[in-house]
């Protein structure tokens, strides 16, 4: 399925949905077209039987950040600054927020540059898998801008405040190995092994119990904002939801029968 001219969506029968950013001539910069396509794709996926979302870029780039052509147009136009801010809120911000809050597990496949808003698009996913060619940079300063696209929310949560400040104040590009050391990616795979390793990883996610997986994602995502008392109460409430599922019964039965469980999302 093609969403506009910038994004492709494929929902596999095994439960994985893949969103492909498809403007390689612009290095998949987070344009209005790509942002709208991602949101539309997520809407389609939420109505499907998918269990996991994979986001990738075409042409050797994940996403090269903000739309420079749109920036040039903004500078040259007479559009009021407050209107330019509202456009940002309606496009990039909506896309990042929708992805962060999406109920299914999300995985970014980074096989090239993920820069600026593109880096945040990757970090907005739950898990990041990278090739050795991956590179991350929060390069807003290079174009005379402050951070946006969720940088101040996402980056400190992953790398800590001091490192986050270093990355945004210097605008340095970090390669795959350094990104892994900082926690920007979960795994770095050799280029020739990437597809196989990704397939195995995604299969591990989609084979999990869907109801419980949604609860896990929500609880961990909210955990930093809670007291220990509130976290324990919310975890108990979530267990109350999954105790009644067929998947819980299947998991316990499979454990005692010494076999792999087959979860159906009920």
Automatic annotation (TrEMBL):
CDD domains: crotonase-like. GO terms for molecular function: catalytic activity. InterPro entries: ClpP/crotonase-like_dom_sf (IPR029045), Enoyl-CoA_hyd/isom_CS (IPR018376), Enoyl-CoA_hydra/iso (IPR001753), Enoyl-CoA_hydra_C (IPR014748). PROSITE patterns: ENOYL_COA_HYDRATASE (PS00166). Pfam families: ECH_1. Belongs to the enoyl-CoA hydratase/isomerase family. This is Enoyl-CoA hydratase. It comes from Natronococcus pandeyae.
